[in-house]
Give the backbone structure.
Amino acid sequence: MQTVNHNEHHFSLRDVIFLAIIAIFFGLIYQGWSYVYYLLAATPLKPFANDMTLGVWIMAGPLAGVLLKRPGISTIGEILAAAVEMLLFSSWGAADLLSGFVQGVGSDLGFATTGYKNWSKLGLFWATLWTTVITFIWDWFKSGYSKYSLGMNCGLFIIRFISIGFFAGILVYWIAKLVQKSGLMK
């Protein structure tokens, strides 16, 4: 899980199949996860619903990065999963693609921080941190976070970091370990 051994510009059929599986699997999860978001948004937790649930919507990018170990693959994986979600009649429509791009870029920046040399815990930590920062800036403008107080924004940022850290960091690490143990990546 540490260094990139692939030709960065060559995708094997196995790589394309894995990317498609990740996109389809997470596109389905993303669409189903929207109901968790809407459930939380219908409670007094509404201001926190986005940040509490965001980590799940970011899992495809880091998983694609960890399994396929290529610069840019996190962005591609996240956009493809967002496209599947959109095609399943997501309530956000084509905005899913833009969100997928922003989320994928955050993950890729994390792996780029390690020079695309660490695809394990350190890379996932940086992917978590960068994705938290990039998506928070995005929501600052897109979702009106600029209208919240400093304390509220700090709370939302921390909740977002924990959500992304657990789902797109820890859980992705465990999934990647299971996939590697299965021998499917050989």
Q: What stands out?
A: Residues 1-6 have pLDDT under 50 and may be disordered. Helices lie at 13-41, 46-53, 60-68, 73-87, 95-113, 121-142, 150-182. Residues 67 and 176 are 7 Å apart (CA to CA). Residues 150-182 form the longest helix (33 residues).
